[in-house]
């Protein structure tokens, strides 16, 4: 197994360090951190898809203008999962499965670029996305991005077993046992993390359970506690379907990070520092220098 880290939707939001905690000046950086997992028997598995080719070429009205205005995506077709994979020598038809943490527009846009892949997600997420009941749901869920939804393969809540203190963790059908869906609802009704036992041990892609590393990784390398950036927190709050549940599940991830019994790399979708760190960490495990750098 080999894990590639891909940024499939780089953003340049105003606010600098208020959005990412590190950028000098007025403009911050955020990523759409997706994974491409080369498995031994089941082809390539994508975790989330970021923005797709069509989103990059003609963003309106595919994307919600309010969110895209705040986040300021770089609309660059070369940053889609499809083009990232081509540069890695992986054909789109090699992608047999896509595991979705949730269906927000900044995660689901590339679904339509891989029409032959089976899409795995929580049932609660599929239901909420299809119904689009609230104003927030109509902003975040964009049916034009999904392609054929008959290939969605959904998992009910409470279907799974235990994993490092988390319960109802889902083993995915026709996928290796090293890839698990970890329900972490709150940001959306069927939001989930994806745990992978890779060449360097377990990693947890926590998606939008948090937006900035300071929310769950308590100490900076020199030991000082850093407050999470207020701009990222404000956007996270605005997009939370159930803020109390989101906070509770974020606390569970914080406990996992702090636990000595579960040494693993935990990262989210939109933190640019985690993205660079994971790219380097994974490439070292593969004995290589990273091939995809932060845009
Ligand atoms: Zn997101």
From TrEMBL:
Record SMART domains: Lactamase_B (SM00849)
UniProt KW tRNA-binding keyword: no
UniProt keywords, alphabetically: Hydrolase, Metal-binding, Zinc
Keyword Zinc: yes
GO terms for MF: hydrolase activity; metal ion binding
Similarity annotation: Belongs to the metallo-beta-lactamase superfamily.
The protein's name in its UniProt record: Metallo-beta-lactamase domain-containing protein
